[in-house]
Structure formats: C-alpha cells, structure tokens
C-alpha cells in the first residue's frame, strides 16, 4: 500500500491527473510548445496587419478616412461578423480532420 504523496507524479499529458496528490501538473514541454505556437501566431498576425501599411501607405490613409465616415453601428457589425467567422474557422480547423 502506497502512502499518499510518497511518489512523484508521473503525468505525461499537459493536464493529466496525478492520483497521489489529486492535483494537475502541467507538462513543461507542452507549455513551451504551446507558448511557441501562440507567439508565432501573434507574430504572423502582426506581419499580416503591417503588410498593407508598408506596401500601400497612401491607399491605407484613404481607406482610414473612408472608415472614419462610416456609421459606428456598421463598423460594429463588420467587427462582429469578422470575429464570428474567425472563431468558426478556428473551431473547424481544431475539431475536424479537414487538414489531416
């Protein structure tokens, strides 16, 4: 019979339950890989956001002046639709085998 807490946790998954301590121990390798992916995606997002301003600064200024004249409700709706489409894409990519 093992005494509770007598052996170290051998959890291998990111949040696998350790029966001895009844708590979750994150796998440091999984956390590092997750953070590397997150920071890479953040960097790619910044690249994609910055490209139009670098390539077409005059057209982007004209576009911003045009947006300034838009109704705030239309901008809010465009932002909501864009957000929902982005969430749908993330869900489909993560939950289906479409890219497997």
Summarize the structure.
The chain is mainly α and 100 residues long. The protein has helices spanning 28-55, 57-68, 72-95; strands at residues 15-18, 23-26.
SS class: mainly alpha
Query: What series of H and E elements makes up the topology?
Result: EEHHH
pLDDT < 50 stretches: none
| Estimated helix fraction | 55-70%
What is the number of helices?
3
What percentage of the residues does DSSP assign to strands (E)?
5-15%
C-alpha geometry: extended
Q: How would a textbook summarize the main sheet?
A: 2 strands, antiparallel
Gyration radius over CA: 23 Å
The average pLDDT is: 81
Count of strand segments: 2
End-to-end CA span: 45 Å
Strands of the widest sheet, in order across it, are 1-2
Structure description:
The mean pLDDT is 81. By secondary structure, this protein is mainly alpha-helical. Helix 1 packs across helix 2 (57-68). The relative contact order is 0.05. The chain is built from three helices and two strands, in the order E-E-H-H-H. It is extended and about 50 Å long. The longest helix has 28 residues, at 28-55. The chain has helices at 28-55, 57-68, 72-95, and strands at residues 15-18, 23-26. It has a two-stranded antiparallel sheet with strand order 1-2.
């Amino acid at each position: 019979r093992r005494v509770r807490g007598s052996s170290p946790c051998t959890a291998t998954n990111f949040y696998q339950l350790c029966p001895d301590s009844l708590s979750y121990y994150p796998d440091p390798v999984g956390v590092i890989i997750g953070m590397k992916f997150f920071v890479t995606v953040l960097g790619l997002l910044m690249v994609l956001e910055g490209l139009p301003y670098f390539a077409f600064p005059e057209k982007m200024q004209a576009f911003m002046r045009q947006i300034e004249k838009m109704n705030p409700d239309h901008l809010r709706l465009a932002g909501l639709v864009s957000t929902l489409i982005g969430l749908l894409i993330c869900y489909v990519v993560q939950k289906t085998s479409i890219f497997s």
